Amino acid sequence: MNIFRLSGDLLHLASIFILIARLHQTKSCAGISLKTQYLYLLVFATRYLDLFLGFVSVYNTLMKIFFLASSGYIVYLMYSPLKASYDKSLDSFRVEYIIAFAAVVALAFPHKYSVVEVLWSFSIYLESLAIIPQLFQMTRTGEADNITSHYVFALGGYRALYMLNWFYRYYTEDNYVDYISWIAGIVQTALYGDFFYIYITRVLKGKSFKLP
Amino acid sequence: SAQPAEHDEL
């Protein structure tokens, strides 16, 4: 554990609390992509299967359980109590392409050919692309309420902090490199490029998130 | 270079 990874994890945790608070406060899921939330549930379900296979630390186990439970809870909220506020026509990105792409890359370049390793690679690649339906919806409508933009910022910032963590690990742990995490992490952070720019130039200056 | 033996990150 190092300060970059811990900060990244805490920012990831914060992003989920922000989203749940947003759903509870407004009693609406308008502006939130159900497809992105469904993809995160799939990401955690395929990656954290290893909960049953090995033990890393109490911290690691508790965080995994939290991510699984919270993503399930968010999908439940959007499917059931908040369903009336969900506008399917705005959440129109074809998510099949993302799942198929992540599956092909995971099958082509896993660390090892085993069910658990291929699913792990799939979850890493899928996570890197899972924000696309959310960003697509924000691009389509051209705006987002502030708390939604804070949510997306925290979610994007978390993986950027992980990149600092991988640099740190490279130097402190005998050139430790996980190339799958690196490639997916770079793609994931890069996808947020335009978003970060608008967030910093508008939302942090007290204006609302609006595309020019 | 060291290869990741296990996935210890989240």
Q: Which SSEs are present, and which pair or pack?
A:
The complex is a heterodimer of chains A (212) and B (10).
Chain A: H1 3-26, H2 34-47, H3 58-79, H4 95-108, H5 115-129, H6 132-141, E1 143-144, H7 146-172, H8 179-191, H9 193-201, E2 209-210
Antiparallel strand pairs in A: 1-2
Helix pairs in contact in A: 1-3, 1-7, 2-3, 2-5, 4-5, 5-8, 7-8
Chain B: no helix or strand
General description of the model:
The complex is a heterodimer of chains A (212) and B (10). Helices cover 70% and strands 2% of the residues of chain A. In chain A, helix 2 runs antiparallel to helix 3 and helix 7 packs antiparallel against helix 8. Chain A contains nine helices and two strands, in the order ααααααβαααβ. Chain A has a two-stranded antiparallel ribbon with strand order 1-2. With 212 residues, chain A is mostly helical. Chain B has 10 residues and is largely without helices or strands. Chain B contains no helices and no strands. The model of chain B has no long low-confidence stretch (mean pLDDT 70). At the A-B interface, helix 1 and helix 3 of A face loops of B.
Portion in helices of chain B: under 10%
Number of E-state strands of chain A: 2
Strand content of chain B: under 5%
Multimeric state of these chains? heterodimer
